[in-house]
Amino acid sequence: MVRTRQGTAAPARGSVSDNSTPKEPKPAKKRGASDREPQQQGRAKKRKSSPGPSQDASGPSETREAEEQQHLPRYTTPDLEYDWDRSKLKDPRPTPGRERRPRYDKYDIPAELAARCPPSPEKPKGRLNAIQKDKLFDEKTRRDPAESFHDLYKCRDKGPNGSPTYDHAGFRLDYEKVMNWFKPVRYNKSRMINGMDRAVARGQSLNEHIMQAFFEEDLATVKEVTKENTFILDLVKDTISKDLGIPVHKIDHAEIDMWEEKDYQKHKVEDWLTYSDEDKKRSMKMLRGGSLRV
């Protein structure tokens, strides 16, 4: 054993300690090499390879499909016309007052037609004010015949002496009613609530009148049967309209009295509990916007 300068014992030269392991010799550093090279090499190993094509990215087929849609001819008003399948209707008789075929709108347009939608107007850059927003809405509504208010704008643009304009259900619009619809109305909460209450009361009164006149059962029984589905009364109103030859949007108390005076046969309420999807779609189309028709 050889004493070191600090007084600790060091193994003699040539002897091997039991707990020590032979150290690997360090590689000789090249001349001019920097101590930062190992760190740079380590960072280089952590770099990821460039990602491949994403699964979300559109493939050639999707890109080709989008290009084909851009080149599709834009639909016009006649392209949106269709006919009801009368074999599925509860009452297949012709509709009184309807002068044109019904047309698809934004609520029921098929996908193949929706792909041919006219392009929307270009939106100006920056934040839009109320006037700019209204202008964009007006322009889009005029361009697209499937928009909900397209017919109203078209009727107003034609003027009082213009050709007749028809809504999506095929009924002729009343120019004066349309112009009143466009007039701005100052918001009044109490007036709005009172108007809604009057409309609900008027509708309930008319429905009860229809129940008493059309069905064999008493009013209480009909109310109990139809309370879960008021759509039945829409079908009944359509039949009364066809019996009298009067448009469905003009059926009121006077028309119900007229139907009773003509002594039409009454119906059983249970016979009106079943109907088709075609009946429901047609009824929704017929009743929408009825207050603006001739």
End-to-end Cα distance: 122 Å
Q: Helix amount, in percent? A: 40-55%
Which structural class do you get from the secondary structure elements?
A: mainly alpha
The total domain count is 2
Contiguous uncertain segments of 5+ residues? 1-22, 36-42, 52-57
The count of strands amounts to 2
Estimate what percentage of residues fall within beta strands: under 5%
Radius of gyration: 39 Å
Mean pLDDT: 83
Tell me, what's the shape?
Answer: globular
Largest sheet descriptor: 2 strands, antiparallel
- The number of helices is 11
The side-by-side strand order for the widest beta sheet comes to: 1-2
In sequence order, what are the helices and strands, one letter per element? Answer: EEHHHHHHHHHHH
Biased composition (Basic and acidic residues): 21-38, 62-71, 83-109
Biased composition (Polar residues): 51-61
Region (Disordered): 1-127
List the helices and strands and how they pair.
Layout: E1 2-3, E2 9-10, H1 37-46, H2 60-70, H3 111-114, H4 130-143, H5 150-158, H6 175-182, H7 189-214, H8 219-226, H9 231-244, H10 253-261, H11 277-287
Helix pairs in contact: 4-5, 7-10
Biased composition (Polar residues): 51-61
Biased composition (Basic and acidic residues): 21-38, 62-71, 83-109
Region (Disordered): 1-127
